[in-house]
Amino acid sequence: MSGGTYYVPATSRWPVLGSVALGIMMFGIGMQLVYDASSVIMLVGLVGILSVMGFWFRDVVRESRGGLYDTQMDRSFRWGMGWFIFSEVMFFAAFFGALFYIRTFAVPWLGGEGEKGVSALLWPDFVPQWPLMNPPGDAVVGPRGTFSPWQLPLVNTLILVTSSITLTVAHEALKEGHRKVCRNWLTGTVLLGLCFILIQGLEYYEAYAHYGITLEAGIFGATFFILTGFHGVHVIVGTIILAVILVRVHQGHFAKENHFAFEAASWYWHFVDVVWIGLFIFVYVI
Q: Care to name a GO molecular-function term for this sequence (predicted)?
């Protein structure tokens, strides 16, 4: 920029520490799943991630409130958030792709269809169906049953769709300068996010206790928990972010014309909602 200034944020240690904390948590999860080890390592990583998020939010808020960000920084933030959401789209596309591959190719091949149907000779009694209730071979036991999509999954779908509406109303209210209206509707959005997390936890309990849907229940259990589990993590993170935004709104932060943190949180939450609609259709209904 000729004749102008451009704010360069100070060197931050939070990205590195966040990566370390995430690595510790994933290591702990792997140890627990493979070796049934203690969950202490996983919890240490989780606490580390939450701590990094808190300190990182603090630094960004201080910089923003200090008037250090200009229009160029605003564009940088928008591009950064856009690419981040694109990376998240690719993240979930990989898991949806795995689900489609299994259902469209792998299971029919095991049943004798297609050019690789010769694999059916290994398990002549295998019945190709989805959900895969009876995996081939005796090493893996399939689930005892599956969820009805028109009960808890439908309730959670309605909750997330409603939360997108309440968040949009809150955003529009902020742009019009109606801060009290914004606070009320944003509070409702956070509460709906908490309700979703609670119901998802209840569904997981039902899956393990009554339906036999576990990570060991064949490919159906694995794909179910990978897709819904990662989505649940995103809902938790999104709810935390919206709660931080709510606190900032209560403290009088954000102007009608300048509130990208609110917008970024909204983009993320709407993305999470769209992913859930895909999950509801392809994991629960079809």
A: cytochrome-c oxidase activity
What local confidence, expressed as pLDDT, does residue 220 receive? 93
Q: What is the pLDDT of residue 1?
A: 42
What phi and psi values does residue 56 have, to the nearest 5 degrees?
A: -65, -45
- How are the residues of the chain apportioned to helix, strand and coil, as percentages rounded to the nearest 5? 75, 0, 25
Q: Which of 182, 159, 171, 175 is nearest to 272 (CA)?
A: 159
Residue 167 CA to residue 186 CA, distance in Å, equals: 6
CB neighbours of 169 closer than 8 A, spacing ≥ 6?
181, 185
Q: Which two tokens stand for residue 234?
A: 């995103």
> Dihedral of CA 2/5/10/16: which sign?
negative
Residue ranges in the chain whose pLDDT is less than 50: 1-3
Q: What are the helix (H) ranges across 36-178?
A: 40-65, 71-101, 107-110, 152-175
| Maximum Cα interatomic distance, the chain, rounded to a whole number of Å | 76
| Helices and strands (H and E) in the chain: how many | 8, 0
For the chain, domains (ranges, CATH) are: 13-68 (1.10.287.70), 69-285 (1.20.120.80)
Look at residue 120 in the predicted model and tell me its pLDDT.
Answer: 77
Which pLDDT score, from 0 to 100, does residue 4 have?
56
Predicted TM-score (pTM) of this structure: 0.89
